[in-house]
Amino acid sequence: MLDVHAPFESRVTQALADDHLRTALDRATTRLAERRDLAVAAVDNPALRHEVRAIRQFAITHLPDMLQQLETNLIANGCQVHWARNAAEANDIVRDIARRHGVRRVVKSKSMLTEEIGLNEALETDGIEVVETDLGEYIIQLAHEPPSHILAPVIHKRAEDISDLFQRELGMPPTTDPGVMCATARQELRRKFLQADMGISGGNFAIAETGTICIITNEGNGRMVTSMPRVHVAVVGIEKVVPRVEDAFLLWQATTRNATGQAVSVYFAMCSGPRRPDHADGPQEMHVVLLDNGRSRIIDRGYPDVLLCIRCGACVDVCPVYREIGGHAYGATAYSGPIGAVLTPLLADDPTSVCELPFASSLCGACGEVCPAEIDLPRILLDLRSDMVNAGTSSVLERVAFTSYATGMQKPWRYRALVVVARWATKLLPRNGSGGLTKLLPPLNAWMRTRVFPRFARRSFRRLWRKRSSGRGIEPSR
Ligand code: SF4
């Protein structure tokens, strides 16, 4: 695995040099994107995207009221509600609950939010064993790697890689049969479920009107995490609140359709409090940690639309940049792809600390086209780039280059003069067989490492246009 703490350019270079990684990414993202396209085409209802957006927008616009209603109903259901402003507070709350209950073993269902705050590491410092029970998360936990996709954390591994890992860590016989590999993990995880003192989940949605935390899974581990151990802790981002039960159902369908191409996921756990006297099972206590960790600051920073995200991962699967470099190249962050490129800087105390991420996009627009919440990701990427430049993150050379370019492009005569100068200047530089430039002077030669600058056309477009237009009363602008 590449070093997620290395500088961005080095991470990208490492990723591009890894043929196994690119094979795995290509296989998985192509499959996911195709399934999504089929599922969306089968429903064929463009109005659904507007509905999803409207629900999310209502919740974010009325966030304080929604959260208050959620808290009231969670408490009425017997839950204990905790508010956390940041990662440290959330981790301390969960550690404190674990300490009070003498917890030694924790089972977790998949939660990107707990990845974001480093909850596993915080619990492990207290000597608590934490076991991820989502198959993908379990695999990367065994491999001591962070997730590389918000939905499919192990997307960067091929079946062969996982087989090697299971043989080494779980004593599995050599095979790449998915059935055998799943059965091996299942057997191991069953034991962990039965031994666990506490279950930790995230929450895909938190329904305000009923005080219910909803968890989408395909493996059933979400239900086991939330019902088998004696304590259940749900760590939920404040933006996950939705007004009504029917809203959660619509978002559930939108999430799974766009994530995996399913009409709905296999499981949809709805947790509305601890076990009651007439219940056959369930936790004795249910805690809900409502975590901000920079989310309200995203609104203050002028990017509320980013909070409409339902984490379906569709934008990640279609992103040509992600498909080449994978999630680890985005650094030590829980989020990658286009949504990661905007969410990571916006959640950071200092967005300029990850200033390269909004530039990790070709701005092709594919992410905006597939987003079920109609988030204009390309626009947000551009706005963040502008913020980064205004914050002074670009080099002096870059600023001089773009200021000169802008100055040149503002007047047709300046543009024409620049072209004449460039045409003559490039005549002095080395060329390949078809006349393209193969080298520029430093520092522009870095740009040429993977590109060839084509030969200037003998006659410019403007001259051709003038010739074609002559006699037809069409004149190019002066
Ligand atoms: S930004 Fe849109 S497409 Fe990307 S994960 Fe969020 S909801 Fe899905």
Structure description:
The chain is of the alpha/beta class and 478 residues long. It has helices at residues 8-16, 19-43, 47-61, 63-76, 87-100, 112-117, 119-124, 135-142, 159-170, 178-195, 221-227, 245-259, 295-300, 314-318, 320-325, 337-347, 366-370, 377-390, 396-409, 412-426, 461-469, and strands at 80-84, 105-108, 129-132, 198-201, 205-207, 212-217, 231-237, 241-242, 267-271, 285-291. A six-stranded parallel β-sheet has the order 1-10-7-4-2-3, sandwiched between helices. Strands 8-5-6-9 form a four-stranded mixed β-sheet, sandwiched between helices. Strand 5 (205-207) and strand 6 form a beta hairpin. The longest helix has 25 residues, at 19-43. The protein is globular and about 90 Å long. The structure holds iron/sulfur cluster. The site of iron/sulfur cluster has 15 residues, from helix 14.
CATH topology of the largest domain: Rossmann fold
Beta-sheet strand percentage?
5-15%
The proportion of residues forming helix, as a percent range, comes to 40-55%
CATH superfamily grouping of the largest domain: NagB/RpiA/CoA transferase-like
Shape: globular
Tell me the Rg in angstroms: 26 Å
Can you list the ligands bound to this structure?
iron/sulfur cluster
- Mean pLDDT comes to 93
- Helix count, DSSP H or I runs of 4 or more residues: 21
Structural class: alpha/beta
The CATH architecture of the largest domain is: 3-Layer(aba) Sandwich
